[in-house]
């Protein structure tokens, strides 16, 4: 299949598995030239070989130049997908400085650093597309995972800022906000994920499908779980009621873990 991204240069970070691998496969199926990034060089090469792309392993914060070179000088779409989460079973983890620092660096600052490198060329030519894998936690929250929930809010805020600042200059921005997705990260969320995310979890391929559809419809906010829109509206419309409901889920989690 050859689609809307025929010949486009696409970079996907954190693409050694899960959502990132699904995005790489979908963009390749649409005709794109794909750079597959992951900290795990072997996993990156495996997916790159599968999709006929190029593996550029390493820290997602520092691969834009190498990815651009691998794409003959032009990045058309950058998918800031790499992310990190910590299981919040230990109440003290909310104050774990290392967990916070790592979460800020991977979930927020990697996006900022990539945008800083990409924007000059995009603004000069008047086109470019930045895709941020945020999570519904960035719109709502997540029990037992303070660093993840807070930094995903930061990732969404940065994507919003990019969009409002540069959309009139040809830069398109999309924020993907799924709930549970059947990946290694979901498996690592422990009992909190089992309670909140597993019941409605979807496959990574469904996220890739939602992204392509969202791009076709030129939408900033992409919700692979459509019900998240209603949750977001309820949160904004009556924060106290929403927080009370979330606290009930917190209590249920505490009782059963």
Give a verbal description of the structure:
- With 257 residues, this protein is of the alpha/beta class.
- It has a single domain (9-228), classed as NAD(P)-binding Rossmann-like Domain (Rossmann fold, 3-Layer(aba) Sandwich), CATH 3.40.50.
- Helix content is 51%, strand content 11%.
- The chain has helices at residues 18-29, 41-51, 64-70, 97-125, 146-166, 184-187, 190-196, 204-216, 228-237, 239-256; strands at 9-12, 33-36, 54-55, 77-80, 128-133, 171-176, 221-222.
- A seven-stranded parallel β-sheet has the order 3-2-1-4-5-6-7, sandwiched between helices.
- Strand 4, helix 4 and strand 5 (128-133) form a beta-alpha-beta unit.
- It is globular, with a radius of gyration of 18 Å.
Short descriptors:
11% strand; 7 strands; Rossmann fold; 257 residues; 7-stranded parallel beta sheet; alpha/beta
In short:
By secondary structure, this protein is an alpha/beta fold. It is built from 10 helices and 7 strands. Strand 5, helix 5 and strand 6 form a beta-alpha-beta unit.
- Binned strand content: 5-15%
Number of helices: 10
Low-pLDDT parts are: none
Structural class: alpha/beta
Give the neighbour order of strands across the main sheet.
Answer: 3-2-1-4-5-6-7
Main β-sheet, in a few words?
Answer: 7 strands, parallel
Q: What's the pLDDT, averaged over the residues?
A: 92
CATH architecture level-2 label: 3-Layer(aba) Sandwich
CATH homologous superfamily designation: NAD(P)-binding Rossmann-like Domain
Q: What is CATH's topology name?
A: Rossmann fold
The total beta strand count reads 7
Shape verdict: globular
List SSEs in N-to-C order: EHEHEHEHEHEHHHEHH
Domain count, please report it.
1
Query: Helical proportion?
Result: 40-55%
> What gyration radius follows from the Cα positions, in whole Å?
18 Å
The CATH top-level class label: Alpha Beta
Termini distance?
46 Å
Family: Belongs to the short-chain dehydrogenases/reductases (SDR) family.
GO molecular function, one term: oxidoreductase activity
Pfam family, one: adh_short
Keywords: Oxidoreductase
